[in-house]
Design a protein that fits this description.
globular, Jelly Rolls, about 45% strand, mainly beta, 2 helices
Length: about 280
């Protein structure tokens, strides 16, 4: 498990491209046959990519977490962006097809992942937050997610926000998680942009081919930076940072938030004219 530490915005504005990518970009997350995991000290979120092939992969406790089992004091959300797979929780199996999600509450002791077909593996994307109590496990398909339509053709940001782990769908302690799908011809996400000092956020960009990228915008509103994102890469967004992007083609991204509250609309809006 890779450990990432917090960065102050006064320090981050001095980073060059290499330093920005080192601190905020998660470049390689989905490796066949492995669990790749990043623990960020920003609100202690864990971001993981799990790609089971010829063997079952399991989440376990560790010294880094200071626990006997992974969800002893945590909860997690899973969205499968690959082929069909199976998540087993204390012996109970949940089959997740492409774009299916699963919320798993605190206290589950045994968590394992496998692909239905090793040659076309599942790709489980995981966000995990610290938790104070246990809520029931809930499987959430893309159709069952709460849908919010946003944007317009004129603004090149027409999209559907699918809320998976969200108070309107299932209970969780602090994790909020969902998937935004941009329509063909739309390339902007989260613009006009915002910050939310009560929560941090992680974006995973995918559904992109090798010839296309997303320019992810970050930084304080009056001093922005960008990170060039390729397919199936994630980026950590501190609470002081905007988190917006523009692609060379439409794409999909998964957002996950942890922090002080779960109010999706708790945002500090930034007018486009004030961005620098």
């Amino acid at each position: 498990m890779e450990i990432r530490y917090s960065s102050h915005n006064e320090d981050a504005k001095k980073y060059d491209t290499t330093q920005l990518r080192k601190h905020f970009l998660i470049e390689e997350l989905f490796v066949p046959g492995e669990i790749k995991m990043v623990y960020s000290h920003i609100d202690r979120i864990i971001v993981a990519g799990i790609v089971p092939t010829d063997k079952v992969l399991s989440l376990e406790g560790s010294k880094a977490l200071g626990c006997d089992y992974f969800l002893q004091r945590r909860e997690l959300g899973i969205i499968n962006i690959g082929a069909a797979g199976i998540v087993t929780l204390d012996g109970e199996k949940f089959e997740l097809g492409a774009r299916d999600g699963l919320y798993v509450g605190q206290g589950i002791k045994e968590i394992s992942f496998e692909s239905v077909n090793a040659s076309t593996p599942a790709k489980f994307y995981v966000n995990s937050a610290t938790a104070h109590t246990s809520y029931p496990t809930v499987k959430i398909s893309l159709e069952q997610a709460k849908k919010v339509k946003a944007g317009s053709d004129e603004e090149c940001n027409k999209r559907v926000i699918n809320q998976f782990v969200h108070p309107a769908v299932c209970k969780s302690c602090q994790l909020v998680m969902g998937m935004t799908i941009l329509q063909p011809g739309s390339v902007w996400n989260t613009m006009p942009c915002h910050t939310h000092d009560r929560r941090m956020e992680v974006y995973l960009y995918f559904d992109m081919d090798a010839d296309n990228v997303v320019f992810h915008l970050m930084g304080t509103p009056d001093e922005t930076r960008h990170i060039v994102m390729k397919n199936e890469q994630a980026v950590i967004s501190p609470s002081w940072s905007i988190h917006s992007g523009v692609g060379t083609k439409n794409y999909t991204f998964i957002w996950g938030m942890v922090g002080e509250n779960q109010e999706f609309t708790d945002m500090d809006a930034v007018l486009t004219k004030d961005i620098k």
